[in-house]
Amino acid sequence: MSQVASEDQVVDFVHAAREAMSPFEIVAGGTRRSVGRPLLDSNGGGLPMLDVSGLSGIVKYEPAELIITARPSTPLAEIKAVLAEKGQRLGFDPADWSRLLGSNGVATLAGAASSDASGSGKLRHGGARDSLLGFRAVNGLGEAFRGGAKVVKNVTGFDLPKIMCGAFGTLGVLTEMTFRVYPKPRFAVTLSLADVTAEEGFAILRKIALSALEPAGLAYLPGNMMTAVGQEIGQAAALIKLEGSRQPLEEKIALAHGLLGDRMRRSEDDPFPAIGCGEMFADIAGDVWRVMIPRADAPRVAKELNARYWLGDLAGAVLWLAAEPSQGPRIREIAAKSSGQAMLLRGSAESRGRLGLFAPQAPALAAVSRAVKAAFDPLALFNPGRL
Amino acid sequence: MLLPPTDAKIVARRAEIVAALKEIVPDGVVADPSGLATFDADALSAYHQMPLVCVLPSNRQQVSEILKYAASHGVPIVPRGAGTSLSGGALPREDGILIGMGRMKRILEIDYENGCVVVEPGVTNLNITKAVEANGFYYAPDPSSQIACTIGGNVAENSGGLHCLKYGLTTNNLLGVTMVLPGGEIITLGGKCGAQGGLDLLGIVTGSEGLLGVVVEVVVKILRKAPVTRTLLASFGSVPAAGACVAAIIADGVVPAAMEFMDRRCAEAVEGYNQPGYPAGAEAILIIDADGVEADVTHAVARITEIVAGLGGTTVEATDEKQRTRIWSGRKAAFAAMGRLAPDMICMDGTIPRHALPKVLEEMAKLADHYQLGFCNVFHAGDGNLHPLIIFDTMKGDEFERAEAFGADILRLCVKVGGVLSGEHGIGVEKRDLMTEQFSTADLEQQHRLKCAFDAQGLFNPGKVFPTLSACIEQGHIHVHGAQLPHPHLPRY
Asked: Is the full-model pTM beyond 0.90?
């Protein structure tokens, strides 16, 4: 394992890897190493690792500009704490999958953005791609470059920050990242409507999604998943998180009451961090999937998936489920029927090797994606095959 | 402005190319000079060029056939929506096919349950909102040309508008596109579920200024209209106080739906133009919209009013819709009002960190002295997007050259203080040669390699966005002559 603590060192390392034609795995906190196809060399062994955890620390935080610049391996917890002191937060509600994936590593900023790991708060401010304004990285030619900028509005040149998010480290070694941040509302509540079918529950969630309430969480949990979030046992529920200053929040709750009726319950407990991180699947056996679909399809798709352990987040746009490894192709087929994507988030090395992170793309799209990858990393040095 | 040299061999084959395109789109080929003249420029009207031929496809198969033909015959392609680009993104080429997407203007599906609308690229921005507003919805990005500009053009330019700070640019409001690649293959990126299952190519295609392909279908998010919107007009005795107010509002956690800055010169010009009722003698004014549920807006208005007062400013609130419209009418007339002060005007577009505003304004005043030209400032203050307006008279000596040099210096200044060359107008041909001010050679080469991944033959919109090594430095602007804006019926802000 090689360690780097500066951009110059990354440049040197990539040059050496080019010389040796030696692909490598980029590792920071290590919590997401088991996501995607296992990285193997031609003999089936592991790849050399580049430990970038030394690229850590906040470079500059400017609350009045709504931006923070940090080195990529800064722990999420550190960023969140620093932002919270100024009443702000990251917009993409980064999800820490370490408990789900059985890792005791430290979830980092770049890890969350590179794996497009957003929680339920994605509803409000979008995903990592919508928050990453600029970055520095080293490409596969061993050149340090930057994309985007440190301002919130910019259309100068190609919008490279977008493609770095969700690329799983296959396009470059990040060395600095600038994110837009958002005011963190002072108060939040979770409203619930218990004992509803999936059909009813998702319909309620869509109604809230289509309202002006700006919800920060919209999930449907079957009864057997409710205990995991400390709610009433045994009854399926639609869960709605609202936030704001005190008076506006009370007004939103009253408006929600008008939409939900008298069965609505109110709680100060927040189940959404656990939902967004997939924590309730941590102790459930099997492969864990995130199936992304048009939200109105959720009841039908959930029924067809017919999983024992599942839930719907983002008003049904994401279904989480645990499944036997043999179910993979069936799950992919069901997702495809809704023009959706089934992501194998947790699986054995065998499952991941066989199924990949996502279904294979249509040939024309796959070809252009390969060309784009090669535009950044022509020798396929970075995390080869993971995405 | 140097563009890649015209390929005389292609021009010589014009008749053959026109005939081939007529085979593909029998009723949609414009080849006569008077017809082509309609397409010889976009809203960056200082630059004109007749296209080799213009083709107006009606469906994606025709687009695919056209691109296949262009690829196999090595003919450049320039995509065009409504031609409202302020940076010359749709400037034609003498040796290139101009592919106009205006005929593909069907709204294909309105899907409230999934909160989205599926449209063809030629649908205007405003028509998306019109299609859903009866049910209380709208499409958020609102570029000033929204009455005319098309969604395909918005995707190409990643268009913004007044409400970006709260609601984002085009890229944040798109769920998917279907596009035809150079070579004719059709791919779909994202869709109603938003997810792509691989590299985020949608993010790259959005704002790619017609360099990567032709978009033939777009899925956009729609939002519920906020129940309440209130408008404040704040005035200040000094520019730094107004700048500090913007920073204080943001730092306080209030995210206004819009927050617009005008300096004294601009406010006075506007007051003389359409009398929006701006206070006399203020050095700077802010127009601020707060939207949301009633209590949210009440809270925001109270906080903003306190912050303004704390900085020595005064606030007036619009008491009804008529007054709201009147306050905004001044802002929307800023370009036209300034345009009356001199025969010519150019509008710059750059973004700066908000905290740099006082310094940038001070430096701009020095530059104005140096170049001996008048200017004023309007500014999407919430997100730091500056639109300095420079006034001059082309007929007077070297004023045009001085105005261009002044404009370029302003953009250099934006970059110097940590900002960027363009916040919403794009690079096009206008700012192409300033790209090296913001990006290193390695940065630009990385972007260029990405371009080549889509368009290995380099046929798509050649000469745009990326500076050529041989190019002399040119500057960015909207050129307005005789107070005649390009598309004079469109508001510009």
From this structure: yes
